[in-house]
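Thread amino acids onto this structure.
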């Protein structure tokens, strides 16, 4: 039995008369155009094959291959495609092991809005759809998204040149749709990643507010009890000696509650400041417009503006877990790293969060049990090349080493090492770190040390005046 589709409601929609006449008019004009083009059977076949294969092959790279191979397969002409980006053009060409020496075409291509012949190469403009041009990830000049190069031009007649002009138009239409599709896919991937980042860096840490509010509630209740004690203390008939003792106890209790409230206020304020910073950083409008993280770089005091706030944020958590903090070379100076403060702060937040979860006690060289984290930095001269210096930023924690076979996967999305035990996690934190550090032009890494594990990232040292804010 044939598959059956359930009956659905059907609504009637008549074609608009003016629209119908306009479309029919264009159809008749196209019929006249093709009659005038008088394409040969092989030229018509080439257009049909290109259309069929552009629908059959789904990947962007396959479409590029089809575009440059049609002239080669049907007409034995070499073809290259220059695809324009924001500040460069990517060249896609036919490359075979037995291909002849390339023709001497321009090294620097000047994009043009009309076909032109230069050094025996025919250049044809590839234009985007003017109705969809604003959906591209860049602003193409004169609607040009690329150029098609066919050679040798000496073997191309005027009529064949007209054919390749129409072929370039069809290539442009398909490329434009694929570029928009690829941009939309990148946007969707970024949104999914952003949701994970918000969950990992904002929503999960925000659960600590419950703990803060419970502590605050306990102090408020204690103040209520004090109110009752004060009422009884000042009631008529209280013994003076008993009254003095009660006042002393109440003063001690009041001091204890005041200190607790002051401490909790500081914790809530620090958490609020970091949560606000992270939300403002993750939810920037520029991220959504471009479908990727867009850095807002500025020079800052790395210690006081990035590291110290994160240490203060995790200080109580470290203390409650018996984790000491040992400094390892953290100079209070404004280093020459120019970074996105909000995103790099989240890098440190992820590193300290992992340190809080996975730090374990070990025995030092003197046989004493110790459990601590440390952080610091060191300069790496010429790390990114001659004269291109870097700075290595470390977060170390004591504990068993990560298995060698797992180390290469640590910064991969979703991966969790075998030492995570029963600790909760998603495997997203280190992936986020890698993503943000690489966006800054840096590198991430892990190295085992005698007492534990060191996670680090290396950023290029950049002069502030080299950054365009």
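Threaded sequence (469 positions):
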């Amino acid at each position: 039995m044939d598959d059956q589709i359930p009956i659905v409601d059907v609504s009637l929609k008549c074609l608009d008369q003016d629209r119908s006449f306009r479309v029919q008019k264009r159809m008749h004009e196209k019929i006249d155009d093709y009659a005038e083009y008088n394409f040969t059977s092989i030229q018509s076949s080439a257009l049909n094959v290109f259309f069929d294969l552009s629908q059959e092959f789904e990947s962007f790279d396959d479409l590029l291959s089809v575009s440059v191979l049609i002239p080669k397969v049907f007409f034995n002409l070499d073809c290259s495609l220059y695809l324009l980006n924001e500040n460069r053009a990517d060249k896609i060409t036919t490359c075979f092991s037995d291909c002849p020496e390339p023709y001497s075409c321009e090294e620097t291509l000047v994009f043009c809005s009309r076909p032109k012949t230069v050094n025996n190469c025919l250049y044809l403009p590839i234009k985007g759809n003017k109705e969809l041009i604003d959906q591209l990830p860049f602003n193409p000049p004169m609607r040009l998204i690329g150029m098609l190069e066919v050679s040798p031009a000496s073997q191309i007649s005027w009529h064949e040149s007209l054919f390749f002009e129409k072929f370039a138009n069809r290539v442009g239409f398909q490329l434009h749709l694929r570029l928009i599709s690829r941009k939309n896919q990148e946007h969707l991937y970024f949104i999914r990643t952003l949701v994970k980042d918000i969950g990992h860096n904002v929503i999960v840490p925000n659960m600590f507010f419950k703990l803060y509010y419970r502590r605050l509630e306990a102090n408020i209740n204690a103040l209520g009890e004090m109110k009752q004690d004060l009422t009884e203390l000042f009631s008529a008939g209280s013994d003076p000696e008993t009254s003095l003792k009660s006042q002393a106890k109440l003063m001690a209790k009041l001091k204890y509650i005041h200190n607790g409230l002051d401490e909790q206020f500081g914790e809530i304020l620090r958490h609020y400041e970091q949560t606000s910073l992270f939300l403002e950083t993750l939810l920037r409008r520029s991220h959504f417009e471009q479908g990727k993280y867009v850095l807002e770089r500025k020079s800052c005091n790395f210690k006081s503006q990035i590291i110290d706030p994160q240490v203060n944020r995790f200080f109580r958590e470290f203390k409650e877990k018996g984790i000491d903090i040992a400094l390892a070379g953290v100079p209070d100076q404004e280093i020459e790293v120019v970074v996105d403060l909000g995103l790099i702060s989240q890098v440190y937040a992820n590193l300290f969060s992992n340190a809080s979860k996975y730090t374990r006690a070990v025995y030092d060289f003197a046989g004493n049990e110790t459990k601590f984290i440390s952080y610091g930095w060191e300069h790496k001269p010429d790390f990114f090349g001659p004269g291109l210096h870097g700075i290595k930023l470390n977060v170390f924690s004591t504990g068993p080493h990560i298995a060698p076979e797992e180390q290469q996967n640590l910064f991969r999305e979703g991966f969790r090492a075998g030492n995570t035990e029963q600790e909760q996690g998603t495997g997203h934190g280190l992936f986020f770190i890698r993503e943000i550090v690489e966006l800054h032009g840096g590198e991430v890494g892990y190295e085992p040390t005698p007492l534990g594990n060191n996670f680090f990232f290396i950023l290029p040292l950049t002069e502030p005046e080299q950054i365009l804010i």
